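Materials and Methods. Structural model of VWFA domain-containing protein. The 1285-residue sequence of VWFA domain-containing protein from Elysia chlorotica was retrieved and submitted for structure prediction as follows.
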Amino acid sequence: MTVRILIAAMSPKFVLLMIASFAVGCFAIEEEKFCQADIVFLVDASGSVSLADFEKALNFTSKIVDTLEIGPYDNQIGLIVFDNRNQPQFHLNQYSNKQDVLDRIKETKYTGGGTDTHKALDYAASTSFTTANGLRSTAAQIVVVITDGKSNDHAQTELTAQRVRNKGVTVFSIGVGSGYQLEELNDMATDPDSSHVFLVNNYNALPQILAQLEKSACKTKPRFLCSGQADIVFLLDGSSSVGAVNFGKMLQFVLDVAGEFMVTSTDIQIGVDTFDGHFRHRLDLNDATDKIQLQRLVSGISYSGGASNIADAVQRMRLESFKTLAGHRANVPKVAIVVTDGKSNYTASGSVVSQTAPDEDITMFAIGIGPDAIFEELSTVTTDAFSHNIHWASAFDALSGLVDFTAAQLCGEIKSTKDAKCGPKADIAFLIDSSGSVGPDNFKLLLRFISSFVTDLQVGPDNVRIGLAKFNSRPYSEFSLDKYSNKSSLIDAINNVEYSNIGGTDTAAAVSYLADNIFTDFNGDRPGIPNIAVIITDGNSNKPEQTEAAAERARDKGIILFSVGVGDDISRSELNALATDPDNRHVITVEDFSKLNAIRTAFKVQACEDIPEILPSQPPPATTTPAPKPDPCQDVISTCDVYTQYVCSNYPEWASTFCPKRCGICTPSEPQVVPPCENKFDNCTDYGVSKCGGSSSAWAEENCRKFCGYCSPGTQVDMTLNKCVYKGQQFDQGEKWLDGCDYECECSDARSGKYVCYNICPSYYNLPRQCSLVKQQGKCCLEPVCNFDLSYNTTNQTRSCVYESHSYDAGDIWSIGCQFQCICLPGGSYVCQSQCAQYDPLPSNCKLVRRPGECCEKPLCEFHTQVGVLSGSGGTSGPSSTQSDQPDQPNSSPGLQSSECVFQGQLYKQDQVWYDGCDKRCFCDDASLGFVRCEDRCPEFLNLPAGCSLVRVPEQCCRLVYCDAPATFSSSQSGSSPVGAVISIAPPPQAGLYPTVPPGYTYAPGQNPNVQTITTSTAAPSDGKKDKIDVPKLSSAPVEEGSAATLLCEADLSSCPHLFVNIWSADSRNLAVCTSQFCGGSFNNRPGVDVQMVESGSTLTLQNMSRDSTHLSTQWGCEFCGGSQVLFDDFIVYAKPENPECSFTTEIDRVTNKIKGVTVTCTTNKVYPEAQCSFQRRTNNGEAVTMAAAVNYTHTSTDDTPVYYTSRCSMSATAEELGEGTHTIQGYVYPDVPGGASLVDSLVLEQSVTIKSEAQSNGSEKTGLSSLFTILSTLIILITTQVYG
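The predicted structure was written out as tokens:
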């Protein structure tokens, strides 16, 4: 615990006991709790306190200090005594060691006089708790007022104490004796009084309240108020659609957001404007100098009503509210936030922002409330090109849930007032938690924190470099240290990192990835430059021991590790194990993600201490090579290399005893030296491939290593290529690619050609019974969908559809705050149902979370997932480019045949696949170049649960997973089954088959007959009751530009017990509801949008779809019967080919005058996406079959916005491939979308050609010119053409 203490007067013995208890309690009572506090004691030195009591107070203070660690990153102490004047003794940051503090306390003099407590409180608020005097945003701020009498001015004391509390300071008040006034003590203290106000009759009674005070003090947490400088203006919708009650909720929202900031004339200033049909300037930036004034002024703003003109209001606000006369300060960031519930009654021409002068650099945010707020309109207000600054509240009552999120976003724009001395050069990598417990909203706040942090740095290729990776069940590299050389592109990249929630927190794998991949020279790491890694997580890793070992290895490489823990589920001990020592400088904790930006300045100060302004000179290279340390991982016998992995697997006890290194049972401490991939002889081709194997294999491996394919993986690559090669395609360093729905791969080391591939679809460990894996349209993997038991409250109203003097028609829906949603039924009555469901107990991996701006808490589940990982590389083998004379050759034989790969003396044809023992699976990717690619035959599995490990099994090449407790692994792979997609379970161990545990391996004890593997989706076990509904299915066919798109949400409604059987949403905002008979809601009031009930469920229709429509960036949701929501954001919009044409040509053999083959070429001017072509033929009027010939494509993008393509395709077929007879060839051109050929009139060409047999040709053979004329005439007759435009 770190404590800063400022002492300003009162009962000595009591304060000693309290602070000692506070300090010791936070350390010893609960190891996981980390307390850090700035404590100011206001000690009464008035005439009612005797000199003897005052000296006891000082002695008491000294004893407190003596129990604490004192220093800039530990406990800091300040002292103030007061009577009718303030007598500050020293501030929080004045002394950095314990003895100096103790000596200074002894020098404090007694004063005597009156009791002006309010002056002491005012001094603490305005002077003591400032950054200049040692205030830390990461610490809890505490004031302890100790007095034996009442103050001279009760009203001022109460008001000033409120100012102190508004700064985020927790106030304790202690009354000693009989002269205090209880009402005044209560007014000073933080609520509740029961835990912040203490009374004792005399000094001897202080120990009686020790335990209670200790408990209260240790519960005090930092407020993490955002401090710095910014001028923030709120622009609030005051139009008629809002109403007076809801307008009051908007004003309270302003006050609540302001409560998260340090509001003063030198820190954050708040202004307020409103609008209806007119712009109304309500509050200048400098009108309120603290939160008390701000609350009084904001509460007095009146509601106007009227029309809504957002465009005019935004322009007026930008031009008028940030002027010097309105309180704006020069060189202070300008921030504005627009809050509205609906569409403007006035149409603005173009973007609101673009109509304002470009030098008005105001950062704009917007909040839309309810279903009528229009995204397109709000997007014209904000200054963010990616719409990160637009937020939503489902109702006015839900604004309270947006307070922390909004404050955090605004805090990211604050200008720091504390200058951190940071050196000019550093390589900094962020490793951020993207697991299921974080959630998409918190992930946005995390990215905002990082982008705000780098804003203050000197980013550049020769200055500070930034890299970023995220992790959950596996690590993901977002960008390397040398990817971005300027701050603007770097911040854009940070803000556009996508949240990847596949569950789990494999911190160990992530930290290893950090050390082995990010801080490497080929990914931008520079020698001699500080390496700093910042790890941000909200939970514990699944295997703490491995995480600690990975962190130690990273630190041994010279990487300085900072660990930032967020929330209540973090492990302090694990954060300490991750971080570089000392922990108090490299470990930071915050209560939630919304507080990250509040510690930005403090974190930068700490980080900059590891970035020296002048880098130390590099030591000269060592002149002698140190003797290698003995490697404990050694084989006992010298012939281990002759044994295969079969021996390792089937004789494990023998393998672990005699060949642990060869069998991979132990890991060598030093990397093995790999022989270079080269031929010793220049004429290896003369020996031929036959001399590469058999009895000559040892000779070939020694002398013709490259030619015969004996190079180790990764060494046979052409080093000048500097790329990874995968299935014939080349990739640059750090580049990522997808291999269909099987793997996501990354070029991890282009110099050696090494790549790493992760399974796209994970396995799910012990999926809860309420959840099953379901196929979602447009998604590669099955995804978990859960049906939890829930219930709603429903109320029936028999009176007419009138609520609060507003009349509704049949089908209209309306909300009553966040409590109820109502619908007007046919016949004039209406019925209401609670907005939020009540859930039965959730599985242990799920919790209820209310997303910012939403009314209701909903389950958020973190599934424990596992992912397989493979690594591979490739290179060429075959003939050398040079030849020279060599000694006698062993029985020369033919050389390498064309178009074959050579691997370890064997020839392989194009696309042939083979195994290199149990280690590698190899592919002949390009036989013409002799290019062989080999990758791991057996996957490693990341994020295996505790108690599960990989073990060797007889008769198996690959290790299998063994768990010491019942376990189920469900694969989410759909369709194919690539390596690593399915986790295979090891059978229970049998005596004598498994070796004893060697160093570095941990095998699970016991037997596990209950382990099973599930390779496909399984539904939750039935409990005898019918489920509420089946999981709904949401789908849409591809749609042509300008046409209507229909989303179909299918579900079985036969057993639906809820009033609203269907709810449609857009980006989490409820937009329409349906009963079993009809649909109602704001969709029906919007042009081009319609919702209807159909026999199989419900449809949502969107008119006039285009590729730049916001419909494509919207996440549409369908929910039936209160069950799980299914999301859809995968509309496919296509443009059909414009003016497609095909040409048909024949190739004639000039010697025989016969048709050798045909070629069809098709083009189209304008299509999206690229055109796809297919060709069919009918022989002698038989059935049409697809031609197997390869189709060659050329696609060129146009300059249009959005883009289109000009496509060209061609196909050739020989006469032999066509065969004898008359063939009708058809050419089809269509957009490359699912079912594209059936979506457009795709038949473009139909042409016939006759191929005659040799006998037919000979029978009609003639000579001379007449013969040639006859042949040409016959060709013209035989070839008949039909072309479809």
